[in-house]
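User: I've been trying to design a sequence by hand for this structure and keep getting stuck. Would you show me what you'd pick, starting by listing the structure so we're on the same page?

Assistant: Good idea, let's start from the same input. This is the structure you sent:
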């Protein structure tokens, strides 16, 4: 019974982690980057785009991504725990650390995917049904090259005319990334019938396949 109660408790926490399922998010025709990334060897990148389940799910189905890990970025080690982050005020954003092969998918392409099928860059401190600074969308460059590409891409997004509202997403300085609890990792793959996944995150993966067929892979790359 103790194990059962622990399992049920974990499930309840997971359900609360990303709010209540309401409806699928919109997609956007984010422009292809004019300033393409020039990188070699496996690289890592950090992105925040609301609930990390969906961010991780999309990048785990992206060709060239070798790892996608859900976690927390922006606060301290003391507060890098779900119960504290979800309450707000820690400075952390739910984020995903992506490891990728630039020979297969470039950093600028990952940015295009992020703002096409994952996150609405016009929303401040919220995405989908989730609100609070912990659900902000953000780009966290890990290298000088990534920062230059991200800055140029945001400028391009602002002048693209794709979005009717101002772009508010920020480029944030790199701080330590803290992996989230085990039950959050590969949540999409492990819980395909979860109501939040069905209503909010599965459509993002479907959109990835439809909008970026050359980057989509059927298999799920676990963290």
């Amino acid at each position: 019974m103790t194990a059962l109660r622990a399992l049920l408790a974990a499930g309840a926490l997971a359900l609360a982690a990303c709010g209540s399922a309401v409806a699928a998010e919109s997609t956007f025709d984010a422009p292809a980057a004019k300033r393409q990334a020039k990188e070699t060897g496996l690289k890592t990148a950090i992105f925040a785009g609301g609930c990390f389940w969906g961010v991780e799910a999309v990048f785990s189905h992206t060709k060239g991504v070798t790892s996608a890990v859900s976690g927390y970025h922006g606060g301290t080690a003391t507060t890098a725990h779900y119960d504290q982050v979800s309450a707000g005020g820690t400075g952390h954003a739910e984020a995903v650390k992506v490891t990728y092969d630039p020979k297969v998918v470039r950093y600028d392409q990952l940015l295009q995917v992020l703002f096409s099928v994952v996150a609405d860059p016009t929303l401040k401190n919220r995405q989908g049904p989730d609100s609070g600074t912990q659900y902000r969308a953000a780009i966290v460059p890990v290298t000088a090259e990534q920062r230059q590409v991200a800055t140029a891409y945001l400028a391009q997004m602002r002048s693209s005319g794709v979005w009717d509202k101002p772009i508010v997403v920020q480029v944030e300085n790199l701080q330590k990334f803290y992996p989230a609890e085990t039950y959050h990792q590969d949540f999409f793959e492990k819980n395909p019938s979860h109501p939040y996944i069905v209503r909010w995150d599965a459509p993002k993966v479907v959109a990835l396949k439809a909008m970026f067929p050359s980057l989509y892979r059927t298999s799920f790359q676990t963290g």
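That's my pick for every position. To get oriented when you compare it with your attempt: Strands lie at 43-49, 65-73, 93-100, 126-127, 130-131, 137-140, 170-171, 177-179. Residues 95 and 122 are 18 Å apart (CA to CA).
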